[in-house]
Amino acid sequence: MFDRVTGHYDRMNRLMTLGRHAAWCRDVAVSASVPAGGNMLDAATGTGVIALAALEKYPDSTVYAVDFSQRMPAEAASRPGASAIVWQYADANDLPFGDESFDAVIHGYLLRNVDDAERVLEKQYRVPKPGGRVVILETRPPRGPLRYPVALGVRVPIRLLGQIVAGDRRSYGYLQRSTLGFTTPQEVATILRRVGFASITWKKKFPGTRMIISARKQ
Ligand SMILES: C[S@@+](CC[C@H](N)C(=O)[O-])C[C@H]1O[C@@H](n2cnc3c(N)ncnc32)[C@H](O)[C@@H]1O
Question: Does the keyword Transferase apply (predicted)?
């Protein structure tokens, strides 16, 4: 599915988030707190927006960007600045890196697309250095008194834009369901704690439908 949406992915993302996606990617990069000359892994890079934001924030660092889609990173690799990033094919369930390889692991919209988020986070715990961070950008279901109007505001535009802009109702139907169907920051924090991470914090974004969660490897 991600191979199929590649051509429209960035435009759709800009429209669906009213242009906020790039700012959230920069926020993820800042939260990664990578030391001078450090390195980081973007674990589901897609079209590379987070990896490129990370390199811009830490120009003397090494950024590895992996994905299991073939087309998404191929598109990303042709962008300005992309030649400084190490692009690689990898499944987040089986990261081909040694223990304690990175100062930070970052990702956007990975967890809601995997079968077992706990397993993926367990695998991720292995690759940061002690004290290194994992920073996660994800969707979260709207809560509180505005949850129904906000859910409607997600459902209708995503389906319409998917149909009109991307001509791909099926993929964007999935996106809309997974956006509203993923879990709360509290539940992600519980999983992070279970797999060993500490110092877990989160910020809510975009009337309660996005979150940025940060945690530290002990
Ligand atoms: C919604 S896109 C997000 C892309 C990018 N991180 C962003 O914020 O725009 C989700 C990406 O996760 C990738 N993905 C999903 N499951 C994966 C897995 N098990 N291993 C590696 N990549 C995966 C998909 O191929 C896709 O590129």
Answer: yes
Residue nearest to atom 4 of ligand 1 (CA): 46
Tell me, yes or no, whether 84 lies in a domain.
yes
Ligand 1 site residues (CB inside 6 A) read 2, 13, 44-46, 49-50, 67-69, 72, 91-93, 108-110, 113-114
Per the domain annotation, does 172 fall within a domain? no
Closest CA to ligand 1's atom 27: 46
**Could you tell me the CATH number of the domain that includes residue 21?**
3.40.50.150
H/E run at residue 214: strand 210-217
pLDDT tens digits for range 56-108: 999 999 999 999 988 877 888 888 889 999 999 999 999 999 999 999 999 99
Give, in order, the Cα–Cα distances in Å from 123 to each of 17, 52, 112, 134.
30, 24, 16, 12
Number of domains in the chain: 1
In a domain, 136, yes or no: yes
